[in-house]
Amino acid sequence: MKPLFTNDAPPGLVLLRQILVAVLWVSAVSVLGQTLTDLGPWYQALRQPEWKPPDWAFGVIWTSIFVLLVIAGVMAWRQTANAAQRVQLLALFGINSMLHVLWSLLFFTVKRPDWSMWELPLLWLSIVALIVTIWRLSKVASLLLLPYLVWVTIAGFLNYANVQLNGPFDRPVVQSAPAVQSDTTAPMPPAR
Fold this sequence. Notes:
Layout: H1 11-36, H2 41-45, H3 55-79, H4 83-109, H5 113-137, H6 139-143, H7 146-166
Helix pairs in contact: 1-3, 1-4, 4-5, 5-7
């Protein structure tokens, strides 16, 4: 039996390895992004535009996009002709992954939608770079990335609406203290 992690592996095992690597990569980006996404009181207090999709839709949309990213990435990888193309593909996916995580960090963790708005064009351009580069390798794989571009465009308008409806964000976030339940049977302190 040929080893799994060499170029001499049977084609089915090579494909399986490529799929596994893509799934692990996309899963790591997804988990990191989810870890940085705090939908707690700060987010819930944001005024949202009336056209904002319901919160449950975001998980469905991102899961679909991540599945398409895996398929597109594997399809493109299989069409690379040399190491230079593979390095370019990995670099573009790496840059896109970092920008994806950075947006979540800025918007949800740092609580600065205004900063994430400045980062968003870089994320958008990284998707365009992936689409253009992958187009040369596989037109079908490139087209699979269009929903990602569309969704990030919509998210950009949503980000802009959040900045307009809730800014400025340059003030420290004040955490409200938990409500203290008073015991009505306890004596009141004397008035001074």
